[in-house]
Recover the amino acids of this structure.
């Protein structure tokens, strides 16, 4: 049955308008983006299949162009639309993060880092550079690795901090496995960076590990 033949209260678009986006399931939200299904499948059916096939929205959003376009009913146009939506979301969160004290809006920082790093098939290490008022100066991806690890060089982090005249940093990296738990190597690296940056009077405010749908904070765990 086509979505237009469903009871009005069950149609994703009408449901969103009446009850708000938070009332919709992942598949229903994705169905609004897809707009149409394929022969024998409504947009909602297709969206459910996509969520299952990719293992969730995070991995779907991180899919490569080849992986995305290989699905029947999708293609370059839908891929371009999705990337545009994701980039607008990143920029909106980056604007929110830059509007004031990063510590006064920790949710914006966490959400930005989750959107920027979650679902990637390789490890990425990035740094948020802050001034003395904890306002965001810049966000940079400094190192990129493999499925299981990346090499981070404290000297390079110090150089970039000095280049931005930063007073403090927020560190972040992802775990492609999806598990946002710190390893012993993560803890050792954080302490090494903390010591190196202390020599130039730069503080580490936090270190986030991003997994599937979650960002773990070193500061909240008492690991700094």
């Amino acid at each position: 049955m086509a979505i237009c033949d469903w009871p009005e209260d069950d149609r994703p678009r009408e449901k969103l308008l009446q009850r708000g986006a938070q009332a919709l399931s992942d598949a229903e939200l994705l169905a609004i983006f897809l707009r149409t299904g394929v022969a024998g499948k409504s947009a909602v059916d297709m969206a459910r299949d996509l969520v299952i096939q990719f293992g969730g929205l995070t991995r779907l959003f991180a899919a490569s162009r080849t992986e995305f376009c290989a699905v029947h009913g999708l293609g370059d146009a839908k891929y371009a639309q999705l990337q545009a939506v994701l980039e607008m979301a990143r920029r909106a969160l980056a604007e929110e993060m830059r509007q004031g004290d990063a510590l006064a809006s920790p949710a914006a920082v966490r959400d930005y880092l989750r959107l920027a790093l979650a679902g990637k098939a390789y490890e990425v290490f990035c740094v948020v550079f802050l001034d003395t008022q904890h306002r965001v100066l810049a966000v940079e991806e400094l190192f990129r690795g493999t499925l299981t690890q990346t090499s981070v060089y404290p000297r390079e982090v110090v150089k970039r901090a000095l280049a931005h005249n930063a007073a403090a940093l927020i560190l972040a990296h992802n775990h492609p496995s999806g598990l946002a738990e710190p390893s012993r190597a993560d803890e050792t690296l954080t302490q090494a960076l903390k010591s190196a940056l202390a020599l130039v009077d730069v503080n580490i405010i936090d270190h986030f590990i991003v997994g599937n749908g979650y960002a773990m904070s070193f500061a909240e765990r008492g690991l700094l």
The chain has a mean pLDDT of 86. The beta strands are 124-130, 136-144, 168-174, 203-211, 214-217.
